[in-house]
UniProtKB/TrEMBL annotation:
One of the record's GO molecular function terms: DNA binding
Entry-linked InterPro entries: Homeodomain-like_sf, Myb_dom, Myb_TF_plants, SANT/Myb
CC terms in the record's Gene Ontology section: nucleus
Residues annotated as domain Myb-like: 9-61, 62-112
Pfam short name (any one): Myb_DNA-binding
Lineage of the organism: Eukaryota, Viridiplantae, Streptophyta, Embryophyta, Tracheophyta
Protein name: Transcription factor MYB102
Amino acid sequence: MGRVPCCDKNGLKKGPWTPEEDLKLTNYIQFHGPGNWRSLPKNAGLKRCGKSCRLRWTNYLRPDIKRGRFSLEEEDIIIQLHSILGNKWSAIASRLPGRTDNEIKNYWNTHIRKRLLRMGIDPVTHTPRLDLLDMSSILRSVFGNPSLLNMQGLLRAQALMNQGLLKLASTASLLSTINNDENPNLASHNYVQNQVTTPPSLDSAQFQFQMPTTQTNNVEVFSGTVANLSCSSSPSGDENLVLQQNQVGLSGNHDALVHSLNNANQNMECDSVLPTPVSSPNRLNSSSNYVRSGTDEERDSFFSDLFEFEIPESLDDIADIFL
DNA sequence: AACGTCCTCAACCGCTGTAGA
DNA sequence: ATCTACAGCGGTTGAGGACGT
């Protein structure tokens, strides 16, 4: 015997809600309170199924819903929580007062996800991926400003770019390898997610290591903040997510990292994965530090800070061209 | 102005988890 | 242990507005 439908579809309205329906639902809930969604439509005089009423209330009519564009701080929180929780929209929403899971999910899919892709960051694993990097937009920004054009520099950049990008790619690949070596069945964000469920603490993941260049023998430092998050248990035992300013080595396992680096035979040496001060402020607790801004350029810049990647010295020439 | 395409987001669908009988 | 009702979740859809040609 199959499950009975949540409501009788016959004669029930679907689609956008009218102001009159909103008023009926709001009035009813203000008087009787939410809940008992199956009987609510009938009692409220609505030709809707209970599920539709519940969704309309929780996603739109609820008085505590915050409307309007997401602030940079909210986007920051969403990205960091998503790196830990994955597509657990309700869990993310529970930490963003006034925002619904549906709203966050939509915003992620239509804005944040695309922004990360544009920045060459995999929105699923939250790791840099060169194949996602939108070089065309970078080049457009250069060619769109003739004052930045320097053919000689561009030609030099091409030679450097190939080596620099290859190294960056191997770095990203290696990071992925390290994660998968330790957790072969898990994507990196899932790995972090697992650690969330094993309190009391998780620190992740400022990674920083050095590799000598084959060309100049100078030391290049790649560093980036994967996430500045830690988790702790509240006295009640509930999982309590705390965002902190400090950060530690990749996945917190120095030996594994060194081992992987050695095995990778990448001509790289591990300098340090121990905690180092992070230059970026803790945006979660410093709302006054940030002026809200609405342009995509400003938001791109903001998220570039979130995923900090220092430009290696050997790529300085390229930076000179672009900046 | 007309048309086509893209983008956004409210709403829906199908499924799972849970409580109670 | 099983069944049912219900709430909630995540993925998907489609209407309508924005934008480009």
